[in-house]
User: Fold these one by one.
Assistant:
Number 1:
Amino acid sequence: MTQKDVYKVVLDEEQIPRYWYNIVADLPSPPAPPLNPATSEPLQPADLSALFPDGLIAQEASTERFLEIPDAVRDIYKLWRPSPLYRACRLEKTLGTKARIYYKYEGASPVGSHKTNSAVPQAYFNKIAGRTRLTTETGAGQWGAALAFATQIFGLDCDIWQVASSFNGKPYRHAQMEVFGARAVASPSDKTAIGRQLRERFPDTPGSLGMAISEAVEAAASDPNASYSLGSVLNHVLLHQTVIGEEALLQLDVFGEEQPDYLFACAGGGSNLAGISFPFIRENLAGNKHVKIIACEPKAAPSLTEGEFRYDFGDTAGMTPKLKMYTLGHDFVPAAVHAGGLRYHGMAPLVSHVYSEGLIEAISIKQREAFAAGVLFSNAEGIIPASESNHAIAGALRTIKAATEAGEAPVVVIGISGSGQLDLPAYTDYLSGNMLDS
């Protein structure tokens, strides 16, 4: 069988990674530590004990290169992992390009996104620590649905604050959470003190991830049996997602691709980008590969391309540790674009660090361009991508178009973070011409 005849590579279940990769061990310089919000001193593990179980705190602070994935987590991963790597043959034909295009598709997970890669281990470590309830925030709803799925597996209660614009615009997302037994409310809500304050201060706000984080943190901090779970940004979340990139490296070898030229991934808080790219950065640092990695963020929340690299709070109310990251300011409220998972004021500290070190690049994309790319991809490949993933596709199409015009044939890998089946109102908005060019 020739390379052109192969449309997808799906690894055996035994090839599901046995270890998460921790990029901290290989960085040329150490990342700045998080700071205690009260003292501005470097955060200590004990400072996190009210919100996280010891197992996750240890991962957050770890400098080990590889951390073993518990068998109980790998067993659940088998429901959707390994995820497929596709050769986008029909897209190549549609574009009339000699570029070889591949995409790693995370939409086959139980809730249709990459978020389950971290939701399952977070629920597991909380369960063995004796916690009985998890609280969280969610933007577009992928993370909320993933945590709802994971908590019902381990018999935990789950309360979710979903950004109001997404809660109202994507009703099937919170319905999905409720099917798994979670309780979901629009944020800012009247369920927390900070939510009530934000509603009074911003009566017509579409909400933001920063606001929803504040509510979820408050709820967890006031309940000794609860933990807070975060779907992006923190080190342990990015760690869990590296199963994506580890699989992609093996799958590209099966395709006979030793050296991809470009890797594109959408970037909001950073978990999807880190998950697929960090193993490739490891190979770049070791001199084994020379892949140009490009983060594709929304123009409505361009933390990498327009933000400042400094300490800032991860939430609106200033309840979280201070993180050294590219930020637009913790009180920044993005426009209500459809890619709700990318509407965050800051970028994960580890992603921010590798960007500051020049190990990745970044571009920003308006949502009309993103959805145009998503529709073209859908018609060629038969998969409707998540709104967030459309930004990665759009970024890749820019490069492929320029390369084709120059007579070049690069090898391009695109991270497709999830399915867009529950984002169809957004596609309808684009197709009807009602989408704002934010």
Number 2:
Amino acid sequence: MPAVLVKDLFDSLKDTLKLKLITPGIPLTGKIKSSEIHRPGLAFAGFYDYFASDCVQILGTTEVAFLNKQPAAKREQSLKKFFSYKIPCIVITKNQSAPESLMNYAVKSGIPIFRSPLRTTNLIGRTTIFIEDALAPRSSVHGTLLDVYGVGTLLMGKSGVGKSETALELVQRGQRLVADDVVEIKRTPGDVLMGYSSKVIRHHMEIRGLGIIDVMSLFGVGAVRNQKRILMAVTLEKWNAEIEYERAGLTESWKEFLGVRLPHLVIPIIPGRNIPVLVEVAALNQRLKRMGIHTAKQFNEDLIRQMAERDASD
């Protein structure tokens, strides 16, 4: 099961959230297994039926005030039960002072407590975004990803088929490179597939006969992007006379990545075909479809209607 280390959370957000560790000496080895953020007010009141113990626990003004107003014996009972769970960490908002009994139980249980000056809702929002991104399902695909007229287009195909050369021509025509050779994909909330490149090979391409080139240095910062939502997959393959390729555009094909389906086209390569132009037209056509305009279907419906009108007039 994927998880985020408390140390990674602290290192990534300590400046943004102005986090301060107030339990020094406690190792930040806890694992956050859910992107939900939990405010344990009901837990402090004794209701644990739906206690999300694997989440970051946020103590706002309400929770801290509740602990401070509880009778000492009741507070000890609440905290003993609360810290019996394997909690990854606790964050106290608005620079509030942590109740002494809370600190004692945290140190005894080895659970780190952080403090932040941010308001509770603000801190929850930023923390949730970070954890959701860190826990997003990920995969990698052999291919090239470009931003073609605003459409994230994933080029796939066997090695040597010409993906990088096609991408290079597209960049020269004003499109933008996102990743070449290995495309990292993550599924974000809303079943959105975001594609990006690893930092090692970002903005670089391998062109047979030339070697490794730096696209940003050659074509400028406007020729690259760090990430892009993938909206279409295109497979390039050598022309096979035995295969009947799509001609009318009425049959739609799909390819699945991380459980999300994407429109999928197969473009056969043969001498004389301008593949970069075909990819651009495919991207523009996909933009039309997302706007509700399906050219092939409209043409087919118009043709059927004209045939029906002609038959009716005979």
Number 3:
Amino acid sequence: MRTNIMIDDEIMRAAMEVSGIRTKKGVVEQAMREFVTRHARKDLSELRGQVRFADDYDYTAHRKDQR
């Protein structure tokens, strides 16, 4: 989709520098991907009270197995 937008030159330069992306199009596309990914995740606060753990679940045993 072709779209013309005005973007502040300073923020574009900063985005290109920190991302290492060499084109304005690449920076905008990456920013859009990150925006969509971030906002598509379910907010953890929405899950409060909905996740139930088994009474005998031992989270410390799981941690020891991963070491």
